[in-house]
Amino acid sequence: MKGHIRERSPGHWAIVIESRDPQTGKRRRKWHSFRGTKREAQVECARLISELQGGGYVEPNRLTVAAFLERWLAHIQPLVAPRTSERYASIVFNNLVPAIGGVILIKLRPIQISEAYAKALTDGRRRRPGGLSPRTVHHMHTVLKQALGQALRWRLLSANPADAVDPPRVERQRLETYDLAQTATLMEAVRGTRMFVPTVLAVLCGLRRGEIAALRWSNVDLTAGQLSIVESAEQTRAGVRYKEPKSGRTRTVALSRTVVEELRSYRLKQAEELLQLGVRLADDAFVVTLRDGTPCPPDRLTREWIRISGRLGLRRIRFHDLRHAHATHLLASGVHPKVASERLGHSRVGITLDLYSHVTPGMQKEAADIVDAAFRQTIKGDRS
């Protein structure tokens, strides 16, 4: 096997790789176009020969990055959750295709990806001036790297160019939440509204939005003072989909006396409202519903929270941040991180400690004081 280059025009080269069929002995040629210096063309020729000899050669084609990404989305759709598929498609069509979609897939190079990320950070918004956040560009990198990894397995590429690119650094955002006093103010402010019980379940039990929207009375045991998280509601463009909890396993959450009392009162009121509509409250009915008794979609919870929280006079936070308030209160009150992790439904206690590291300095001080007190007591006893 040998190769040589021919200059077609200044800076444009034809790379010709010659070999012979091992069975017929017939000579075969493979042609490649290359743009660059003569030395770069020679290096590319050597690389192609190496790939042919090593079995990593990919036949040249005119498949663009945009066309490939569409094929990849179709491939990945049945393998992931619908909401995940929608997020992938949004990133592909809104961010990746406008940036590098016109590039021939086999000619995509790390420098083109890096330049696309840099441009996205400064001028990546589609409908108004400005750049995308580092977090969004990081998501772009994650999706592109995964997609190009599939291209590698499909033998459309001999290497993944995204492997050689570093995404922008994403600074961790400090969690915004309410302290105990603000939480008490919040509870009284939303009492009497349809957001009261969702707020109770989020801020006093640590449930996620989707878990609240999917909770049924059959999974709530007010006598034992506990509820079970067995499914979660996922908002998609096609509607609401019920699936297993985020951690992939069910969990039991103990209820405080306050929560039990509030849920008992709420269930009675909910039953009375449904009777006025001629409907009897069933054991498997949803806890959080609309006025007609139908399940409350997750995005409706978000919209209602935005509407109501704007009138509270408290610092504006996301509905999901109410769950963070519960976690912060647990850890600040001395609850063991393992217990907090199980209550929140984290797959590992390390996730809990990582997310709520802002609480641990105070816990460390308290732990140091406890050990110091025990140490001093021991010394005092020895001296006596």
What does this structure look like?
- The longest helix is centred in the last third of the chain and has 24 residues, at 360-383.
- The protein has 384 residues and is mainly alpha-helical.
- Helix 2 (65-76) packs antiparallel against helix 3 (82-100).
- The chain has 14 helices and 8 strands.
- It has helices spanning 38-54, 65-76, 82-100, 110-123, 134-153, 180-190, 196-203, 209-214, 257-276, 298-309, 321-332, 337-344, 349-355, 360-383, and strands at residues 2-9, 12-20, 27-35, 220-221, 226-229, 232-236, 239-243, 251-254.
- It is elongated and about 85 Å long.
Instruction: Report how far the terminal alpha carbons are from each other.
Output: 91 Å
Instruction: Tally the beta strands.
Output: 8
Overall geometry: elongated
Q: What is the CA-atom radius of gyration, in angstroms?
A: 30 Å
Strand order in the sheet with the most strands: 1-2-3
Helix percentage range? 40-55%
Profile the largest sheet.
3 strands, antiparallel
Strand content: 5-15%
Overall pLDDT, averaged? Answer: 85
> Which structural class is indicated by helix and strand composition?
mainly alpha
Number of helices: 14
Please trace the helix and strand order, writing H or E for each element. Answer: EEEHHHHHHHHEEEEEHHHHHH
Q: Are there runs of 5+ residues with pLDDT below 50, and where?
A: none
Which key features would you list for this structure?
49% helix; mainly alpha; 384 residues; three-stranded antiparallel β-sheet; elongated; single chain
List the topology elements.
Elements: E1 2-9, E2 12-20, E3 27-35, H1 38-54, H2 65-76, H3 82-100, H4 110-123, H5 134-153, H6 180-190, H7 196-203, H8 209-214, E4 220-221, E5 226-229, E6 232-236, E7 239-243, E8 251-254, H9 257-276, H10 298-309, H11 321-332, H12 337-344, H13 349-355, H14 360-383
Antiparallel strand pairs: 1-2, 2-3, 4-5, 5-8, 6-7
